[in-house]
Design brief:
The structure holds two protein chains of two kinds. Chain A is of the alpha/beta class. Helix content of chain A is about 40%, strand content about 25%. Chain A has helices at about 40-50, 70-75, 95-100, 130-135, 140-155, 170-185, 200-215, 225-235, 250-255, 260-265; strands at about 1-10, 15-25, 30-35, 55-60, 65, 80, 190, 220-225, 235-240, 245-250. In chain A, the strands form two sheets. Chain A has a six-stranded mixed β-sheet with strand order 6-7-8-3-9-10, with helices on both faces. Chain B is mainly α. Chain B has 13 helices and two strands. In chain B, β1 and β2 form a beta hairpin. In chain B, α2 (about 35-55) crosses α9. The radius of gyration of chain B is 19 Å and the shape is globular. The model of chain B is unreliable at about 290-300 (pLDDT under 50). The chains are: A alpha/beta, B mainly alpha.
């Protein structure tokens, strides 16, 4: 589904990411771990298009994404959450979610995510007149609102619909960011520390959501420092250190590798 | 009576131009100081077409909208690539350029002498000449503008503009082409500003470059900030307030030469007071600009 080959990025002589290659297949959960400054978030930013790599290519569903703007990658189905929460704090949970919908194309069909046989892939950019026209039309809005309620229900936040995102608890904000990615109809979720700083109960909730999403065919790629959660949920573990991928495989095996242990101790 | 009607007409004209700036500055967070330029482009387009070609208002006003929109596109395309203070400077530069052209291209714009004798508009042969009919004329435009913008800002499009003001990266991550939305907002704002310029030209029937200076842009911005950024009704209230109150100075028996200067002092003072004590303006919900200013952070900790 996602194929990253030979990505290299220097920042003033520092190898932030050094010749990183990886492949992620559909409906799996892959965790990217490594010490602070290992280049995990940089790699995420490169995959999502926020940083242009010096070398290497990113392919998504067989399509080369080089030169694609971040919003094009998002519309192509790569959802992304951020380490420091980026929600519109003044807008309600519902409005944040509604932002994610593409109000130009027909509203998302109900039912489970990932099952929708849409096949269009990248939704094209609307023209100026079309943008205005759809803006004024309310039928879209009503259908999307229903879908938004469903999604909020799915992440267990039905009672927080009208609360400003800024007043939600940290864990709820994480859930809301996740719901935003789902509203985007993303097939690949790139989550930067989805359970960091969240209480145990919410962690369980988030992890069970992950399992459900995986069942419905969604692929999850996450960065996380909470090793208990990582070991519990991951199908695969990728370890980065100083910009290089030093291990890649089944969690229980990767954990035992000497270079991984060394990277964490040193 | 005519005097009061005159003030109401000016309130309507300024409501339109400040609502259009509110789309940029209040909703999208694009602090533009070039709005008087677009206001002027509308006024000059209407004046030149009416004077030289004798065209009716229902051609002149749309012509102003289109010309403003095209110029807005050309200006916004490069300047929207800059952020914050740099964006303000690029719009400032554009404002200066437009003023210089209006002031110096004498053969075309009349230069500092301006364009006198703009004919009054007529609808189906009925000349709009009395103050009452003018008030109805401009009020119609103001109401239509309000309805259109209110609906637009209440739509997904408006929501995306608000999101762009708060966090561009988040909006991008949700698959929205931020640049395109900003560009559209800028064009809409500029086009609507040109409507009020056209109305102004018709009403005053004489225009010269001094009505479209940087001071005018800042005055329009003051209306937006004092009325309440991100609130269309605020722009209307702001227009009423900033036009009515200085008129009061006439009644306290101040000579005209002093009153003009007093107005500037008054606007400045009002702006500073609002920034200090009510940064969200009269009708606004939030302080001007992005969320998370120093004050809000401190309040959160307390």
């Amino acid at each position: 589904m996602l194929e990253v080959s030979g990505i290299t990025k220097h920042f003033d002589g520092v190898h932030a990411v050094d010749n990183a290659s990886l492949k992620i297949s559909q409906a799996t959960i892959t965790s990217l771990i490594g010490p602070n400054g290992a280049g995990k978030t940089t790699l995420f930013n490169i995959i999502c298009g926020y940083i242009e790599p010096d070398k290497g290519a990113v392919q998504f569903n067989g399509k080369n994404l080089n030169g694609c703007a971040p919003h094009e990658r998002a519309s192509a189905g790569i959802g992304r959450t951020f380490q420091n929460m980026r929600l519109i704090k003044r807008l309600s949970a519902l409005e944040n979610l509604m932002l994610a919908f593409n109000y130009i194309s027909p509203p998302l069909t109900g039912g489970d995510e990932g099952e929708g046989e849409k096949g269009e892939g990248v939704s094209e950019n609307p023209g100026f007149i079309k943008t205005l026209f759809y803006s004024i039309s309310r039928t879209h809005e009503i259908k999307n609102k229903e879908k938004a309620y469903e999604l909020l229900d799915f992440v267990g936040m039905k009672d927080k619909v009208y609360e400003p995102a800024g007043s939600l608890s940290y864990g709820q904000q994480k859930l809301l960011s996740l719901a935003c990615c789902l509203a985007l109809d993303a097939k690949l979720l790139m989550l930067d520390e989805p359970v960091a700083g969240v209480n145990q109960e919410t962690i369980h909730k988030i992890l069970s959501l992950f399992r459900e999403l995986k069942k419905s065919g969604i692929t999850i790629f996450l960065i996380e420092h909470n090793m208990d959660a990582v070991m519990e949920i991951s199908d695969r573990l990728i370890v980065m250190d100083e910009g290089r991928i030093i291990a890649d495989g089944i969690p229980s095996e990767v954990k035992e590798k000497p270079e991984v242990i060394e990277a964490y101790i040193s | 009576m005519d005097y009061l009607l005159h003030i109401l007409i000016m309130v309507c004209i300024y409501s339109i131009v400040s609502m259009s700036l509110n789309i940029l500055a209040g909703y999208t967070g694009l602090l533009s100081v070039s709005h008087a330029a677009f206001y002027g482009i509308g006024a000059y387009t209407t004046a030149l077409l009416a004077l030289n070609a004798g065209l009716p208002f229902w051609i002149n006003i749309p012509a102003g909208i289109i010309i403003s929109g095209v110029i807005a596109f050309l200006v916004a395309w490069p300047s929207l690539r800059t952020y914050d203070d740099y964006f303000v400077i690029t719009t400032f530069a554009f404002q200066i350029i437009v003023f210089s052209i209006l002031n110096n291209w004498v053969s075309f714009t009349g230069g500092p002498l301006g364009l006198p004798g703009i004919p009054q508009p007529d609808i189906f042969g009925i000349k709009i000449s009395s103050h009452v009919s003018f008030l109805i004329f401009v009020l119609t435009f103001a109401v239509l503008t309000y309805i259109f913008l209110n609906r637009l800002m209440d739509s997904p499009f408006g929501r995306i503009l608000k999101a762009i003001r708060e966090d561009e990266i988040f909006t991008t991550s949700l698959g929205k082409d931020v640049m395109k939305f900003k560009l559209t907002a800028f064009i809409i704002g500029a086009s609507i500003a040109s409507i009020s310029g056209s109305l102004y030209a018709y009403y005053i029937s004489f225009i010269d470059p001094t009505s479209f200076t940087i001071m005018e842009s800042i005055f329009i911005l003051s209306i937006v900030i004092i009325g309440g950024a991100g609130n269309l009704k605020g722009s209307i209230v702001g227009s009423a307030l900033l036009i009515f109150i200085p008129e009061m100075l006439r009644f306290v028996g101040m000579p005209n030469s002093i009153a003009a200067n007093m107005r500037q002092i008054f606007y400045g003072l009002l702006l500073v007071m609002f920034m200090m004590f009510r940064p969200q303006g009269i009708m606004g919900k939030f302080a001007f600009g992005k969320e998370g200013g120093v004050k809000e952070e401190v309040k959160k900790d307390a």
